Amino acid sequence: MRLDKFLSEVGLGSRTEVKALLKKKQIMVNGKVKTSPKSQIDETRDQVTYQGQELSYEKYVYYLLNKPKGVISATDDPKHRTVLDLLDDRARQKEVFPVGRLDKDTHGLLLLTNNGQLAYAMLSPKKHVDKVYEAEISGLMTDQDVKIFADGIKLSDHDCQPALLSIISSDETSQTCCVQITIREGKFHQVKRMVAACGKEVTDLKRLSMGPLVLDEHLALGLYRSLTSEELESLQIFGVEL
Ligand code: URA
Protein backbone atom coordinates (compact mmCIF):
# COMPACT_ATOMS: atom_id res chain seq x y z
CA MET A 1 0.00 0.00 0.00
CA ARG A 2 1.04 3.63 -0.34
CA LEU A 3 3.15 4.91 2.51
CA ASP A 4 0.98 8.00 3.11
CA LYS A 5 -2.15 5.81 3.37
CA PHE A 6 -0.39 3.52 5.84
CA LEU A 7 0.75 6.45 7.99
CA SER A 8 -2.74 7.93 8.03
CA GLU A 9 -4.32 4.63 8.91
CA VAL A 10 -2.02 4.05 11.88
CA GLY A 11 -3.10 7.44 13.19
CA LEU A 12 -0.23 9.78 12.38
CA GLY A 13 -2.58 12.33 10.84
CA SER A 14 -4.34 13.28 7.64
CA ARG A 15 -2.71 12.64 4.27
CA THR A 16 -1.51 16.26 4.24
CA GLU A 17 -0.10 16.00 7.76
CA VAL A 18 1.79 12.79 7.03
CA LYS A 19 3.22 14.29 3.85
CA ALA A 20 4.76 17.00 6.02
CA LEU A 21 6.28 14.36 8.33
CA LEU A 22 7.75 12.58 5.32
CA LYS A 23 9.23 15.82 4.03
CA LYS A 24 10.83 16.39 7.42
CA LYS A 25 12.53 12.96 7.07
CA GLN A 26 10.85 11.56 10.17
CA ILE A 27 9.72 8.31 8.62
CA MET A 28 11.94 5.29 7.96
CA VAL A 29 11.07 2.08 6.17
CA ASN A 30 13.38 -0.83 6.99
CA GLY A 31 15.97 1.58 8.33
CA LYS A 32 15.97 3.96 5.34
CA VAL A 33 14.50 7.46 5.35
CA LYS A 34 11.55 7.78 2.97
CA THR A 35 10.24 11.10 1.81
CA SER A 36 7.83 10.19 -0.97
CA PRO A 37 4.17 9.69 0.01
CA LYS A 38 3.80 7.48 -3.04
CA SER A 39 6.39 4.92 -1.84
CA GLN A 40 4.88 1.45 -1.78
CA ILE A 41 5.28 -0.70 1.30
CA ASP A 42 4.25 -4.19 2.35
CA GLU A 43 2.35 -3.37 5.53
CA THR A 44 2.58 -6.97 6.76
CA ARG A 45 6.38 -7.20 6.51
CA ASP A 46 8.10 -3.84 6.29
CA GLN A 47 9.26 -2.13 9.46
CA VAL A 48 8.03 1.46 9.47
CA THR A 49 9.19 3.85 12.17
CA TYR A 50 8.31 7.42 13.14
CA GLN A 51 10.94 9.20 15.23
CA GLY A 52 12.41 5.78 15.97
CA GLN A 53 9.10 4.23 17.17
CA GLU A 54 7.79 1.24 15.25
CA LEU A 55 4.31 1.67 13.81
CA SER A 56 2.12 -1.40 13.76
CA TYR A 57 -0.65 -1.85 11.27
CA GLU A 58 -4.09 -3.29 11.97
CA LYS A 59 -5.68 -4.69 8.85
CA TYR A 60 -9.16 -4.88 10.32
CA VAL A 61 -10.83 -2.72 12.92
CA TYR A 62 -14.08 -3.35 14.79
CA TYR A 63 -16.08 -0.68 16.56
CA LEU A 64 -19.09 -1.24 18.76
CA LEU A 65 -21.30 1.82 18.39
CA ASN A 66 -24.29 2.82 20.50
CA LYS A 67 -26.18 4.33 17.60
CA PRO A 68 -28.34 7.29 18.54
CA LYS A 69 -31.62 8.15 16.84
CA GLY A 70 -31.37 10.59 13.96
CA VAL A 71 -28.36 9.19 12.11
CA ILE A 72 -28.57 6.74 9.28
CA SER A 73 -26.72 3.43 8.94
CA ALA A 74 -24.93 4.27 5.71
CA THR A 75 -21.45 5.36 4.74
CA ASP A 76 -22.55 8.55 3.01
CA ASP A 77 -25.73 10.43 2.34
CA PRO A 78 -26.33 13.75 0.63
CA LYS A 79 -28.89 14.93 3.21
CA HIS A 80 -28.51 13.13 6.52
CA ARG A 81 -25.84 12.57 9.12
CA THR A 82 -24.52 9.02 8.93
CA VAL A 83 -22.99 6.77 11.56
CA LEU A 84 -19.57 7.57 10.05
CA ASP A 85 -20.02 11.21 11.09
CA LEU A 86 -19.78 9.93 14.69
CA LEU A 87 -16.25 8.60 14.20
CA ASP A 88 -13.01 10.46 14.73
CA ASP A 89 -10.60 10.98 11.81
CA ARG A 90 -8.45 8.01 12.70
CA ALA A 91 -11.35 5.57 12.79
CA ARG A 92 -12.69 6.99 9.53
CA GLN A 93 -9.35 6.44 7.78
CA LYS A 94 -10.04 2.70 7.98
CA GLU A 95 -13.02 2.88 5.63
CA VAL A 96 -15.38 1.11 7.96
CA PHE A 97 -19.04 0.46 7.22
CA PRO A 98 -22.00 -0.67 9.32
CA VAL A 99 -22.79 -4.38 9.51
CA GLY A 100 -26.44 -4.29 8.51
CA ARG A 101 -28.86 -1.45 9.00
CA LEU A 102 -30.85 0.09 11.77
CA ASP A 103 -33.63 2.54 10.91
CA LYS A 104 -32.93 6.23 11.41
CA ASP A 105 -35.13 6.27 14.54
CA THR A 106 -33.72 3.00 15.98
CA HIS A 107 -30.91 3.19 18.53
CA GLY A 108 -28.53 0.69 20.10
CA LEU A 109 -25.88 -1.76 19.03
CA LEU A 110 -24.30 -1.39 15.62
CA LEU A 111 -21.01 -2.99 14.61
CA LEU A 112 -18.76 -1.00 12.29
CA THR A 113 -15.86 -2.74 10.59
CA ASN A 114 -13.78 -2.83 7.43
CA ASN A 115 -13.85 -6.64 7.43
CA GLY A 116 -16.15 -7.43 4.52
CA GLN A 117 -16.00 -11.19 5.03
CA LEU A 118 -17.17 -10.87 8.60
CA ALA A 119 -20.01 -8.53 7.61
CA TYR A 120 -21.09 -10.93 4.89
CA ALA A 121 -21.06 -13.88 7.31
CA MET A 122 -22.93 -12.02 10.07
CA LEU A 123 -25.64 -10.92 7.63
CA SER A 124 -25.97 -14.24 5.83
CA PRO A 125 -29.44 -15.75 6.43
CA LYS A 126 -27.72 -19.16 6.55
CA LYS A 127 -25.83 -18.21 9.71
CA HIS A 128 -29.05 -17.53 11.68
CA VAL A 129 -27.58 -14.70 13.73
CA ASP A 130 -29.96 -13.70 16.53
CA LYS A 131 -30.73 -9.99 16.79
CA VAL A 132 -32.39 -8.98 20.06
CA TYR A 133 -34.41 -5.77 20.30
CA GLU A 134 -36.19 -4.01 23.14
CA ALA A 135 -39.31 -2.23 21.98
CA GLU A 136 -41.75 0.19 23.57
CA ILE A 137 -45.18 -0.51 22.18
CA SER A 138 -48.38 1.46 21.92
CA GLY A 139 -51.01 -1.20 22.66
CA LEU A 140 -50.81 -4.30 24.82
CA MET A 141 -49.14 -7.36 23.38
CA THR A 142 -50.71 -10.62 24.43
CA ASP A 143 -49.92 -14.32 24.77
CA GLN A 144 -51.70 -14.74 21.46
CA ASP A 145 -49.16 -12.36 19.87
CA VAL A 146 -46.36 -14.45 21.41
CA LYS A 147 -47.82 -17.44 19.55
CA ILE A 148 -48.24 -15.45 16.30
CA PHE A 149 -44.53 -14.49 16.49
CA ALA A 150 -43.53 -18.10 17.24
CA ASP A 151 -45.56 -19.43 14.31
CA GLY A 152 -43.92 -17.01 11.84
CA ILE A 153 -45.66 -13.83 10.68
CA LYS A 154 -46.57 -13.40 7.00
CA LEU A 155 -45.71 -9.88 5.82
CA SER A 156 -46.90 -8.64 2.41
CA ASP A 157 -43.50 -9.41 0.84
CA HIS A 158 -41.94 -11.93 3.21
CA ASP A 159 -42.81 -14.94 5.34
CA CYS A 160 -40.93 -14.33 8.58
CA GLN A 161 -39.17 -17.16 10.34
CA PRO A 162 -40.39 -17.96 13.85
CA ALA A 163 -39.40 -15.19 16.26
CA LEU A 164 -39.38 -14.86 20.01
CA LEU A 165 -41.59 -12.26 21.68
CA SER A 166 -41.21 -11.80 25.45
CA ILE A 167 -43.45 -9.36 27.27
CA ILE A 168 -41.34 -7.52 29.84
CA SER A 169 -43.98 -5.21 31.33
CA SER A 170 -47.48 -3.97 30.51
CA ASP A 171 -49.35 -0.89 31.66
CA GLU A 172 -53.13 -1.23 31.42
CA THR A 173 -53.73 2.45 32.18
CA SER A 174 -51.64 3.85 29.35
CA GLN A 175 -52.23 0.79 27.15
CA THR A 176 -48.50 0.47 26.49
CA CYS A 177 -45.97 -2.29 27.01
CA CYS A 178 -42.28 -3.10 26.79
CA VAL A 179 -41.19 -6.25 24.97
CA GLN A 180 -38.08 -8.07 23.82
CA ILE A 181 -38.07 -9.46 20.32
CA THR A 182 -35.52 -11.86 18.86
CA ILE A 183 -35.31 -12.26 15.11
CA ARG A 184 -32.83 -14.06 12.89
CA GLU A 185 -33.44 -12.05 9.75
CA GLY A 186 -33.07 -8.40 8.91
CA LYS A 187 -35.78 -7.39 6.48
CA PHE A 188 -36.75 -3.76 5.98
CA HIS A 189 -38.55 -2.43 9.12
CA GLN A 190 -39.00 -6.03 10.15
CA VAL A 191 -39.69 -5.60 13.87
CA LYS A 192 -42.00 -2.64 13.33
CA ARG A 193 -43.91 -4.53 10.64
CA MET A 194 -44.21 -7.69 12.77
CA VAL A 195 -45.63 -5.66 15.64
CA ALA A 196 -47.95 -3.82 13.23
CA ALA A 197 -49.16 -7.23 11.97
CA CYS A 198 -50.47 -7.80 15.52
CA GLY A 199 -52.29 -4.45 15.43
CA LYS A 200 -49.86 -2.54 17.69
CA GLU A 201 -47.19 0.09 17.07
CA VAL A 202 -43.51 0.33 17.98
CA THR A 203 -42.83 3.73 19.55
CA ASP A 204 -39.18 3.12 20.46
CA LEU A 205 -36.75 0.49 19.22
CA LYS A 206 -33.36 -0.36 20.64
CA ARG A 207 -31.05 -3.17 19.52
CA LEU A 208 -29.55 -5.01 22.48
CA SER A 209 -27.44 -7.62 20.72
CA MET A 210 -26.36 -9.12 17.44
CA GLY A 211 -24.98 -12.65 17.61
CA PRO A 212 -22.44 -12.78 20.43
CA LEU A 213 -22.07 -8.98 20.62
CA VAL A 214 -24.04 -7.24 23.37
CA LEU A 215 -24.71 -3.51 23.72
CA ASP A 216 -22.32 -2.01 26.25
CA GLU A 217 -24.57 -0.08 28.62
CA HIS A 218 -21.56 2.05 29.69
CA LEU A 219 -21.32 3.37 26.14
CA ALA A 220 -23.34 6.58 25.89
CA LEU A 221 -25.49 7.13 22.83
CA GLY A 222 -23.33 8.24 19.91
CA LEU A 223 -20.13 6.79 21.37
CA TYR A 224 -18.16 3.79 20.19
CA ARG A 225 -15.21 1.68 21.26
CA SER A 226 -13.03 -1.05 19.78
CA LEU A 227 -14.12 -4.60 20.49
CA THR A 228 -12.39 -6.22 23.46
CA SER A 229 -10.24 -9.28 22.81
CA GLU A 230 -13.03 -11.47 24.28
CA GLU A 231 -15.60 -9.96 21.93
CA LEU A 232 -13.27 -10.46 18.99
CA GLU A 233 -12.71 -14.06 20.00
CA SER A 234 -16.48 -14.60 20.15
CA LEU A 235 -16.64 -13.70 16.44
CA GLN A 236 -14.52 -16.72 15.57
CA ILE A 237 -17.77 -18.70 15.26
CA PHE A 238 -18.18 -17.03 11.85
CA GLY A 239 -15.09 -18.83 10.54
CA VAL A 240 -13.50 -15.86 8.77
CA GLU A 241 -10.14 -14.15 9.14
CA LEU A 242 -10.40 -11.51 11.91
N1 URA B 1 -36.53 -3.78 12.71
C1 URA B 1 -37.03 -2.55 12.45
O1 URA B 1 -38.22 -2.39 12.22
N2 URA B 1 -36.17 -1.51 12.47
C2 URA B 1 -34.87 -1.64 12.75
O2 URA B 1 -34.13 -0.64 12.76
C3 URA B 1 -34.35 -2.92 13.01
C4 URA B 1 -35.22 -3.98 12.98
From TrEMBL:
PROSITE patterns on file: PSI_RSU, S4
InterPro entries: PsdUridine_s_RsuA/RluB/E/F_cat, PsdUridine_synth_cat_dom_sf, PsdUridine_synth_RsuA/RluA, PsdUridine_synth_RsuA/RluB/E/F, PsdUridine_synth_RsuA/RluB_CS, RsuA_PseudoU_synthase, S4_RNA-bd, S4_RNA-bd_sf
Source domain of life: Bacteria
Molecular-function GO term, any one: isomerase activity
RNA-binding S4 domain residues: 1-64
Coiled-coil positions: none
EC numbers, comma separated: 5.4.99.-
Keywords: Isomerase, RNA-binding
Family matches, as Gene3D superfamilies: Alpha-L RNA-binding motif (3.30.70.1560), Pseudouridine synthase I, catalytic domain, N-terminal subdomain (3.30.70.580), RNA-binding S4 domain (3.10.290.10)
SMART domains noted in UniProt: S4 (SM00363)
Any Pfam family the entry gives: S4
Enzyme class at the top of the EC tree: isomerase
PANTHER family: PSEUDOURIDINE SYNTHASE, PSEUDOURIDINE SYNTHASE FAMILY PROTEIN-RELATED
Family: Belongs to the pseudouridine synthase RsuA family.
Name recorded for this polypeptide: Pseudouridine synthase
Species annotation: Streptococcus caprae
